[in-house]
Amino acid sequence: xxxxxxxxxxxxxxxxxxxxxxxxxxxxxxxxxxxxxxxxxxxxxxxxxxxxxxxxxxxxxxxxxxxxxxxxxxxxxxxxxxxxxxxxxxxxxxxxxxxxxxxxxxxxxxxxxxxxxxxxxxxxxxxxxxxxxxxxxxxxxxxxxxxxxxxxxxxxxxxxxxxxxxxxxxxxxxxxxxxxxxxxxxxxxxxxxxxxxxxxxxxxxxxxxxxxxxxxxxxxxxxxxxxxxxxxxxxxxxxxxxxxxxxxxxxxxxxxxxxxxxxxxxxxxxxxxxxxxxxxxxxxxxxxxxxxxxxxxxxxxxxxxxxxxxxxxxxxxxxxxx
Length: 322
Ligand code: SF4
What we know:
Bound molecules: iron/sulfur cluster
Order of helices and strands: EEEHEEEHHHHEHEHEEHHHEE
Shape: globular
Mean pLDDT: 90
């Protein structure tokens, strides 16, 4: 059986912002396989970026894994050895490209330093590699680009530079955290097409984080849907988008503009604070399909097909009604 490149198994994470534990992720499980794109979708604040930081050992607020394990290439990296994956096996593109580089050094200096440190090569070799990657992300005048400072680029140009830098280190996994949030509509597709084409050429896996289901639908083979620090449904993207099982996923899909639909149907209520220690299903206060057990018991994972799983009481043998 094929083994995942990265595996998060039943992980819960606590932060300690004021000394007291604050649970931000609960029982998260994800498998990312070589060469595939996994889309992580959910509302702002549901724990998507926290999941990325977990993989990179970059949890804020003295964050700690309190149960579960993280694996990379078959090796248990639950301890701090995840730090060693950064900039080598795993690269990340952040939401705001304009804040991703040091503003007082030229792009060339920073790009060349990264490549020298990653591959142990000399200045000249690193410079020619940087020029090749700048051309590969279709930016004009590569020589001139190396001499410029970060503030001399537009958001779209800077995000393409970030893609060049991230891909140039030849990672096994690229984490793209809302990579198009700061871009206008025309540049969103352009940027994601670029990531997708380089991913295929280089056989890199991608974890694409977004709150935009339409974007995720176009680029991902698999989807994991997050709600309030937990994963509520995951599996094959086409299956989930055609026949979503979890009421929250159904709500997200109903809220999308489609055909000549005049009114979008929103999910009633608002997202609770993460660390919501209510018993039962975290989605229960907003769920139109809730049954009595949802208030008192946390739903377990149920296999709906060989391709997808859902955390909802309606899929237990006893309550199968949906
Ligand atoms: S477990 Fe209950 S409350 Fe939670 S999503 Fe399923 S039906 Fe709704």
